[in-house]
Amino acid sequence: MLQESLLSSVSTLCVQLAVSSHEVETLAHSCLPYLSAEQPQGLQDVCMTTFGNLIGYDPDIIWLLLQQVCPNTVTHPNNGILKQYYFGHGEKSDVFSSNVYNLLTLFK
């Protein structure tokens, strides 16, 4: 499937081209619909991998975007001093909440 191919290669391309944070944000916004639970599972899985790679490249931008998608989800880095807290998700973010929650657990 063309969408899966594009999603699976776009994060690697960002790293190779050393794109700016603004471009990462634009790309992440474009990929965001594929995090929806209403998408086929294969596209969700590839998108999760893409976002995971983008977290490794520009974690601040991706964290901010995920917080905008699910604003009631608050996390703190697990550094031994602060604990992670997850609160209920808003109605607008229900189709994204599971995938966003899983991505937020990748932040260290």
Class of secondary structure makeup: mainly alpha
Poorly predicted runs are 85-92
SSE series: HHHHH
Radius of gyration: 14 Å
Number of strands: 0
Helix residue percentage: 55-70%
The termini sit apart by: 33 Å
Q: Count structural domains.
A: 1
Characterize the largest beta sheet: strand count, sense, and whether it forms a barrel.
none
Number of helices: 5
Average per-residue pLDDT, rounded, comes to 83
Percent of sequence in beta strands: under 5%
Structural shape: globular
Topology record:
Blueprint: H1 2-17, H2 21-31, H3 41-57, H4 59-69, H5 94-104
Helix pairs in contact: 1-3, 3-4
Model description:
With 108 residues, the protein is an all-alpha fold. The chain has one domain (2-104). Helices cover 61% and strands 0% of the residues. The N and C termini lie far apart (33 Å). The model is unreliable at 85-92 (pLDDT under 50).
